[in-house]
Amino acid sequence: MSVCRVDRQQPSSWPALDRRCHTTSVTDPGGPSPVLETRDVVALQTRTVRTLMGSQVLGGVGVASGIAVAALMAADISGRDDLSGLANTTQVLGGALLTIPIAALMAARGRRVGLMAAYLIGTLGAGLAILAAELGSFPLLLLGTALFGASSTANSQARYAAVDLAVPARRGRQLSLVVWATTLGSVLGPNMLGPGKAMAESLGLPPLAGAWVFSAAGFVLAAVLVNVLLRPDPLLTARALALPPPAKGVAVDPAPTDAPADDALARTPRVGQRGSVVHGARAILASPTVLLGTVTVTIGHVVMVAVMVMTPIHMAHGHAEVEVIGFVISMHILGMYGLAPVAGYLTDRRGSRPVILGGVGILVLACLLAATSSTGWSAGLLAGLFLLGLGWSCTMVAGSHLIAAGAQVEDRASVQGASDLIMGLSAAAAGALAGVVVQHLGYDWLGAMGALTALALGGYTVVTGRRVTET
């Protein structure tokens, strides 16, 4: 039997696995049965990233299609503009709260099972939104958008799955590739409003309901793709490779399937499974690196959500057509995801803090452009929404890099789940308050508040810089 050696003295030993080894097996010292079988880790990481990129495209169509019409449908059903932000708020809130069971599921069963569950819950939410449009029920719409938020949880958690097996020096780029893959689906989604109206008419549904049909289809396809191709599971594999080796090497064993490896790993008591978000919150507070990452993704997301969810209402007040609104939102989403690989490259080369500060500057400019734009369509608003997405991308990639770098392998699911929970709850509150601010003060005040919030992130990043490490 041949042996493939892994240097356990290196901080990330598994990327050093000899590329000539095609299948590896880590053996439990308590018995002859293998507890992990996996392909060469380098090849597995490549396949994992490609699979996640595919699911992000499909999931991106679903998320963006629903988000583009949620506020408009809420205003139409409720008859009140000040309630329009609740549809997006419940979507963000639902995504945040559903992070708790999804993180626990990932800790126990791995990334694949958790991502599948999240996409299928999102599908159910899209179906309820269609039913709410047909019945004219505002409470049912809010329930649907809350469950729909699980799809955002899936897309968010996928970025961490991309770096479970990543080499530290390439962590930012590989994380950003999965973020970038959302571009195609997310830009396409809002521009499906026109075809969605035609589909709704053919199905005898209200015009805005057609977008939710595309959402449901995208989520189902994403769940199928993850179930078929995300094997062996990257998180379970990373945990097993972090265990002390039973011998000096890793023996080669040509296993015919990857599925038993996932099942055996999930049952192995030696593999860490700390899935509680309470434990994750404690771990966040204990690490300055993870804390800065969490604060970064939270504030960046809060600013983006608050301004973005009220932009369709701001444009509708100026009698902009739904297709024009969809175009502006699609350009915003292009800014969010299109240049993510650049943010990832800069994060790997220059570090997270400079990218965070750059993102802060972009967010401030974006909020000021939005605040000074006229109602309806304007070039300034288009530029502001694009930059709003770009600033979010910088804070999301750099902040997520800090979270991935600072979390121990046995704590990853709980730390990343807690971070996304904090981010989601904060953004949900911001989305709810955004509607009130616009109703009573105006869209310009909302933009000004967003700029001040982004500046606060910049100050915190500067103050805490010396305590942050990214190894």
From TrEMBL:
The chain crosses the membrane at residues 57-75, 87-106, 113-132, 138-154, 175-193, 205-230, 290-313, 325-347, 354-371, 377-400, 421-439, 445-463. It comes from the Bacteria. It holds the Pfam family MFS_1. Residues 286-471 form the Major facilitator superfamily (MFS) profile domain. It is found in: Cell membrane. Its main location: membrane. One of its GO terms (molecular function) is transmembrane transporter activity. Keywords: Membrane, Transmembrane, Transmembrane helix. One of its GO terms (cellular component) is plasma membrane. InterPro entries: MFS, MFS_dom, MFS_trans_sf. It is a multi-pass membrane protein. This is MFS transporter.
